[in-house]
Amino acid sequence: MSLNLQLQYVETFGFKFLHNSLSVNAFTFPFHLHTLCFLPFPSLPRTHTHPRFRPRTTVFSAVTAEQPPAPPVRMVAVAGHGAASPLKSASWEEVMLHTVTACCFKICWIARSFCLQLERIQIIDRNLSYFGVMFLIIRVAKRLKWVDEGYELLVFTDECIVSGGEMSTRLQKELRDADILMIIAVTNKESVEWINNNGKTIENVICLESSSDLKNRLGGYDVPSGVRGRIFGSFFGTSQSGKAKESYEVVQTVSEAWDRHNSDDIRFCLLVIINAYIRPVPVLNNLRAKGFSTLNCMLRNCGRQVLNCLLDPNCRKALECLNRCSPVDQVCNYRCIASYESANLEAFSLCVLQKNNCLELEAEVPEKPYVPPMMKFRGQNLSYEVAEDLFVGWLGSLQWSWRVVAGQNPAYDQFPCQYQLFYRGKAKGSFWYEPVFQVKTLEGEMVWRRRKYRVRRGKVPGTFYFSVLDNGVVSKEFWTIVDVAENLSWGLFHYHGAARVAGQSYTGAVLVSPDGAFPTDRERTQVVAALDKCEIKEWELYNVDNCSCIDPPLGIPEGSSLHTVVQIEDPKQMSV
Q1: How many beta carbons lie within 10 A of that of residue 37, not counting itself?
Q2: How far is CA 379 from CA 22, 145, 375, 376, 382, in A?
Q3: How many angstroms separate the CA atoms of 497 and 368, rounded?
Q4: Helix (H, G, I), strand (E, B) or coil at 283
Q5: Closest C-alpha among 19, 36, 34 to residue 288
Q6: 452: helix, coil or strand?
Q7: Three-point CA angle 335, 147, 456, nearest 5°
Q8: Which residues, other chains included, contact 195 with Cβ-Cβ below 8 Å and sequence gap of 6+?
Q9: Rounded distance, CA 160 to CA 448, Å?
Q10: Which of 35, 107, 177, 508 is most enclosed, with most CB atoms within 10 A?
Q11: Domains parsed from the chain with CATH numbers
Q12: Which residues does 493 contact at the CB level (< 8 Å), separation at least 6?
């Protein structure tokens, strides 16, 4: 590569590689449309150490050395009572309870004693008076515990502040030990004054969509209130101090994630603050590029691919576009890839990421949440053959297996006209999945895209392993058939996945039907029950635009086969 081209490359991308960098949302990377976020992004500040987390002296023996476990990260969220969120008008209380939790406990009065129910029980107050208390829900941060068992979060509403009493005392007690306080949609004057008075000692306080009289704080430093819809506005005036700059980067990252208003990004906001001010979050630290070593690896091993990409207008536009995207805006990143897909871009990412792992990233397929597959179909135990037939779905009667109605992953489900094609291949035992979908490019053009996944059976009928080479990067996924209606009027499929060399892991689910329309009201109870198995709420789903799906590039390879067991009726005769 010529010196000019090398300098041009460094000028275009160099500064991105000189920093430790946070990549796209590490928890919800879309399973069959994953963005190639191989370019590092502006770094988060280096991790600060909270006094409670400073290293302790460890005694080493000749045989073994043990490091004491880190103390838990304690977080408290206070939501405005009854305040509506942008998530299909669900209350912020409900959003926070679900976003960070999935366990609750009910306290029932039976013979003047409490009956504690549900699988995981954390008693908030053993001395709660049973008089007037017949039903209480306090949720524990289970979704955060999917990341680290040491994360503890309690959710309150400001109703307990206004009403006073023992719950107000309990909140006051929890705030004394809190590492992070998150305040959402609190505007009541009495609540604002109470929080300001009782939250003075908390080093990290973020106020979201709340009164401007509430004080934001990061790392023990006050931050001015926000403007223009952001969490915080201009930060520390014209201050150029190192801590101000570092905190500003956290503010920007958290602000942009929060503005997307989805449950995974709300959790991401908390993880960013934990990583920056309390202790390292491994799933974020593993997404950091390695500075000059990354650039050296690219130039040493992939010089020809880098040169070809720079000389290809579409490939170069794709990389420049990715650099302009927010580090946690998956939709922006994927639109860059979809807008400028090319053979040179695929060769670039195949060499830089897949073959040489120049960013030295790692990601594993998540194990949580555990989602059980359906056990029976039409009264019979689910077999591998029947499960595959359920994936094949309507293909044969229609030109596709299923159409996606809605999904939980915010990146994937922004795209319209999603068709699923499942079929058996020519080779014995082979099974394939090909999603077909539309993308609106940055030039405003609607284009069709298609991918091809190899599918293998899992250990249990109804579970499968998927793998795909998408724009040069391999993604591996674990799919579960959660439920399918007996007449195939709808289905729900859950997935976990990871693009290892891109440092991305993700989860989600898709609701499907033969025509892309929502199941009927009569089927809603069963659909909600299936979503509950995935720990997903209805308001988390993103609706797919299936209105203008003209000439999709469908069809399957000649010699493929479809159903072996399940009989599919004429869709025109289908009744619910």
Answers
A1: 30
A2: 49, 36, 9, 6, 9
A3: 11
A4: helix
A5: 19
A6: coil
A7: 65
A8: 78, 158, 161, 181, 183, 186, 214
A9: 52
A10: 35
A11: 73-86+129-225+243-284 (3.40.50), 291-355 (no CATH), 376-543 (2.40.128.20)
A12: 479, 480, 481, 482, 509, 510, 512
Strands (E), 317-401: 376-377, 380-381
Task: Report which of 357, 390, 341 is spatially closest to residue 491, judged by C-alpha positions.
Answer: 390
State both tokens at 216: 């934001």
pLDDT number for residue 167: 85
With CA atoms as reference, report the closest residue to 514 among 547, 490, 483, 481: 490
Does the structure show a pLDDT above 90 at 12? no
The strand pairing partners of 398, in sequence order, are 395
Contact 552, 437 (CB under 8 A): no
pLDDT digits (tens, 9 = 90+) for 530-557: 999 998 888 888 899 999 899 999 999 9
What was the pLDDT predicted at 135?
27
Phi, psi of 151 (to 5 degrees): -95, 125
User: How far is Cα 325 from Cα 319, in angstroms, rounded to an integer?
Assistant: 10
Q: What does the block give as tokens for 122? A: 């954390």
**3-state class (DSSP) for residue 539:** helix
Tokens matching residue 368: 């949580």
Coarse DSSP helix, strand, coil percentages of the chain, rounded to the nearest 5 percent: 30, 20, 45
The answer to whether 93 and 182 have CB atoms below 8 angstroms apart is no
Q: Please classify residue 542 by burial: count the beta carbons closer than 10 Å to its beta carbon, then call 0-12 exposed, 13-18 middle and 19+ buried.
A: middle
Cβ neighbour number for residue 456 with a 10 Å cutoff: 11
pLDDT digit string, tens, across residues 230-265: 444 344 444 445 666 667 778 777 777 777 777 677
CA dist., res. 62 & res. 378, Å (int):
62
Q: Residues near 216 by Cβ (< 8 Å), separated by ≥ 6?
A: 205, 206, 207, 222, 223, 224, 225, 226, 231, 232
Query: Torsion angle of alpha carbons 95, 98, 99, 105, nearest 10°?
Result: 130
Orientation of helix 263-277 relative to helix 242-259, angle to 10°: 170
pLDDT digits (tens, 9 = 90+) for 431-485: 999 999 998 888 888 999 999 999 999 999 999 999 999 989 999 999 999 999 9
**Largest CA-CA distance found in the chain, in angstroms, rounded:** 84
